[in-house]
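Appendix B. Raw example, untouched.
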Amino acid sequence: MSLGYVAARVGSFFLIVWLAATINFFLPRLGNIDPVSQMLVEQAATGGNLQTGLTEMIDIYNEKFGLNTPVWRQYLNYLGDMSRFDFNYSIANYPQRVTDIIGRAMPWTLVLLTTTTLFSWLVGTLLGAIMGWPRAPKFLSFLMPPLLALNAVPFFLLGLVLIYVLAFRMRLFPLLGGYTAGTFPALTPAFLRDAFQHSVLPALSIILVSLGGWALGMRAMMITTRGEDYVTYADAKGLKGRTIFLRYAIRNALLPQVTALALVLGQLVSGAVLVEVVFSYPGIGNVLYEGIRAGDFFVVQGIVFMLIVSIGVATLILDLIYPLLDPRINYRSA
């Protein structure tokens, strides 16, 4: 791999992050929403009367958040803040900083979605590889129809079904939340057990939906790989079926699966939104949803920017490690 190629890929990464961050800045402002006015009016209405001096308060808050400056000045400040991963204060939850809000929610999302994504990828890929091999057990062929049927169901819809059947009717799991209300989060066996019970249903909805897609993709690649010359040659040499399956078929069929996994891991936050909203799970997706509802520019921009960077980093790493996964890929001539 040449240094020129690495430099070009890193340059492309920063260019993509800048373009996406620019869109991330201007898109929330297209709705002509004044988040400060909206927040203060809602607070005044909640108090039962209209606060005096509301206009002066709006002007002070706009100055505090830098929203009273021209858009180009806000954009330059935004780029400077994003380069330092400083996402400013939350408008809807002032004086909390966006980084603190994200920091509290991120572990919930990472534990839930990273675990379920990796588990569904491993199990689905293994099932697909076995089902695409001619010596696979016959009973596995009956698994594909239900897996494909579940794969066509959205995460949140299956989540609602699981809530109704397993939580509401059978009362096997908690209905909502990440832990029992009133419990103080701490790394204790009792709290971890409680959090695990609350995470079963959202995890189950993600795993059941994802398995079919991973299995179908790997099965298709295994069927294609079986017809390649190197597999036929390995079989003609008299190699054991297990060796051909592991070292020749799976290794070459795995590249598209690894690519898809890297992109999915980079988009964990976007995939968390509806699942966490349905289950009222205290993760980053729920924070993003509440930020969009409240018109909280800085929360939305901070979370979306993290998503942009994670996807870009996942794609960059994938490009750089491809030659390690497949020696036939060579970038020296690039």
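End of appendix B.
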